[in-house]
Protein: aspartate--tRNA ligase
Organism: Mucor flavus
Amino acid sequence: MSAPTQDPVEEVTQKIEELFFDDEGKPITKKAFKKLQKDKEKADRKAATAAKIAAEKAERDATNVDYSVDRYGKLPMNQSQTRTDTKYEDINTIDASRAGETVTVRVRVQTSRATGGKMCFFVFRQNVSTIQGIITVDESTISKQMVKYCVGISPESIVLVQGKIVKPVEEVKSCTVTCAELAIEKIHVVSEVNARLAFSLDDASRPESAYEEDPQLVRVNLDTRLNNRVLDLRTTTNHAIFRMQSAVCLLFREFLTERGFMEIHTPKLISAASEGGSNVFKVNYFKTNAFLAQSPQLYKQMCIAADFGKVFEIAPVFRAEDSNTHRHMTEFMGLDMEMAFNEHYHEVLEVLEDLIVFLLTNLKSRFSNEIEIIKKQYEFEDFEFLPKTLRLHFSEGVKMLREAGVEVGDFDDLSTANEKFLGKLVKEKYHTDFYVLDKFPLAIRPFYTMPDPANPGYSNSYDFFLRGEEILSGAQRIHDADFLTERAKVHEVDISTIQPYIDAFKIGAPPHAGGGFGLERIVMLFLGLGNIRRSSLFPRDPKRLEP
Ligand code: ATP
């Protein structure tokens, strides 16, 4: 039913009343009418202002909308739940010729720098390579919130970045990728840093010369580095050092396998101290004790008695020596070889000399990038060596020392100081950082060393030196069981503890010789690092068992 319509006369009367009479039915005066008019204008102005403010707020809210939420943030912990076909790029493959391409990289944030709240620059790192990344606020894809998030990502976090390859206006001199950079489109944190960094990688990567120019710069000492070794190992220099360490083993294997040697693995838990002496670690072994091998010496010789002919091993060696020096550790990697010869132990010595020349030549040619990187921090002189190795008789070395004013006996062992000084004299006279001393005094060598009857008091044994410090000891070994027993007695070795070794020679063994290098010594001396701990991943010495 429709509402009854109002009588038009009544309607007009009501409007007149509203216009000319107030709520109490009194006529509105002209003055009151004007006031009412003003009040209305005021109310209208107020409403207009409120509407304007509301419109402005709406606009502000609209611009604050984070339109980039899907482009940044922390990824959930990877629990291997999905696989995509995404290609993860090696940043070394990125260059200006690929400008315009969108790539995905997983990198570490080395540094980040915000400029004015709308932009952020990154240096991203992948192993030893770095590339610049840039993110800039725009109207539809990169929000202010996203850039703010970027600025807050801690250095050393691992991030997954999608970015467009851009040719920079100028070369990026601070990065290894100089001719391209990444315009960041997406950035997600894969692994964040939850601890305070003990030092910055910049501080840990400085050469000594930088401190001469500016002594105020932060210096990271060796102990701090070793206490925070994982962080320290991230420096470009350390990556290169351990690539060189790996290279030494690679080349050692390559050379020897090429020459028909066979790789062996001898026990490290043994029942007796292999070389006598007290520098052996004792460990519990069920109801008895065992010892950690001081070298593979006895076992590699036993393999020769087993007719393996030419063997080598790369394995840890344990020495319980309380030596707190720049070149001794309680655990190091031994590169050992042993070989049967036909007539003279020099057949073996020649193989060892060729091995070192091969090693030095190939380190220089195949690992020149690494050498250059390390040189930037450790500033060492190029390694000099002769194509035909210099071999001096021990007595010649003693003569050179004496001529230079050093008091030394004919059969004295070389002290570290004399060893280094002789290296200096050899370098001056023969221009080589690598040489061999042959025919060491018998009395200072282990019991299994073959004496040299033509040179009484001397033996068929040798040491190799790099930059004036020992890297290898080797010798012809006694392969006759009776003579071996006799010599062991002279050295007061308890025969019962080495009986299986002696027995190996009772059933016949060919004449043989060999030697053992210390891996970390080779790396330290070749690269002039000055301390063996720098060429050991997690060094062990009398004062350090951690990390
Ligand atoms: P050094 O006289 O320097 O103490 P060594 O004569 O005891 O050495 P060997 O037992 O002949 O050395 O060991 C062979 C090689 O092993 C050495 O030339 C060296 O390269 C390495 N080496 C020996 N001892 C250590 C050690 N404590 N730490 C690191 N490397 C070592």
Observations:
- The first helix runs from residue 8 to 20.
- The domain at 72-191 is CATH 2.40.50.140 (OB fold (Dihydrolipoamide Acetyltransferase, E2P)).
- The radius of gyration is 40 Å.
- The pocket of adenosine-5'-triphosphate is lined by residues 319, 321, 328-329, 332, 470-473, 516-518, 520-521, 532 (CB under 6 Å).
